[in-house]
Amino acid sequence: xxxxxxPIVDVLAEIPLFQVLSQEGISAVASAGLSRIYAxxxxxxYQGDPGDHLYVVIEGLVKIVFTSxxxxxxVLNILGPxxxxxxxxxxxxxxxxxxxxxxxSASIFVLPRRQLLELxxxxxxxxxxxxxxxxxxxxxxxxxxxxxxxxxxxxxLAKLLLQLAxxxxxxxxxxxxxxxxxxxxxxxxxxxxxxxxxxxxSLAARGLIELQGRTIVLRDLEALRRRSQV
Length: 230
Description:
- By secondary structure, the chain is α+β, with helices and mostly antiparallel strands.
- The strands form 4 sheets. Strands 3-10-5-8 form a 4-stranded antiparallel β-sheet.
- Helix 5 crosses helix 6 and helix 8 crosses helix 9.
- Strand 1 and strand 2 form a beta hairpin.
């Protein structure tokens, strides 16, 4: 399958994890997996599912959702094109620690664990890149823990808006029309939806953002950066 007419092998070649492979190696990855299309709101994998596949976002957006034993949810991350998920469970085959849901129509490349391990056995540099990917995940989790401890709600929200806009190439643009709701934002920063709504209104009143229905436009990036550091 292809994304907007581009062969999957070309997309994989732009992902750091696979860039250490030769063209033949990348072609082997493409041949070992398959592509699936998910509609907005469709669950790609469930928390507790077997950890036997690696996933690559080819197109669209997905959210990583952790559900507690009593049913409370936290959005751990938002991923877009050329980003990978499922790598933690893949290490030891443990059940998935979170569910993944499509925010927009998403094209996902799925690589079975067995095939990935076979590729690693003949491409040692792939192991190094995989470890770098794991390290990046751990650093991100550490940073989020620090934000929860040291930033107030307004600071965490300002930082999240900047991260989402930058991550998806819309530094002066839209955040919420990607399919995220205020509830999603609240679950990403450990707050309630009403509290996030009040924080958004406060940022809008100060001219840092503009609210247009479910769309957020970032108006003062420097002020948002300052707010995210206090």
